[in-house]
Design goal:
Length: 218
Amino acid sequence: MTHEIEKTLTSIDIKRIRKSTGLTQKEFSETFSINLNTLRHWEKGDRKPNASTVVLLELIEKSGVEICSILKKTEDKQMVKSKGKEFLQDVFYHRKYSNLEELVVSEDSNLTDAILALITANGYLYKEAKEDDKSLLFLAGHTSDSLQCVLIIDKESKSIRGDLKNVIEKTYLTVFGLEKDLRDAIYWPQEMRKKRIEQLILDLEIDTDFYSHILKNW
């Protein structure tokens, strides 16, 4: 047992493991949260990783490509959400489209990212968009193998349909209210903030659970 704990890797081993992932030193350090200078010292051979880091490196050696692929997919999903969210925040700030229908009719180039962000706000970890000549389809699920079509936008009529149609429309209005009316609510007195939230929920005809769910995921 002691032998296993004290097991280490040579500088050649570490460099080989890192190169097997196809990542540069900087990319490898950022991907696996390893200090860049520390990694450089390991590869030079003037420092050695501790036991717990050796375990991590050996795991990367066995499944490095798969791990990087999973991390890349997660990063891509976060980027999509961030891009869509940032676009919507700008829309709400400038009051460009007061509801989802106006956004769809506008044919804005950010429409797909925006709707993916709205789907994410409903707690769906997995989602994707597909497009053909007639429609823009959105799929979502709580696991990667349970994706189902939840929203369809007809390109010609600009109409919206699907199981999540009403939910996404309400989500749009809810985050519009969050960004437009409650952006500075954190600085308000508690009672004033509570009353404004209650009024927003009443105006949007949603319940407290729906509001809290969107707020948590937005």
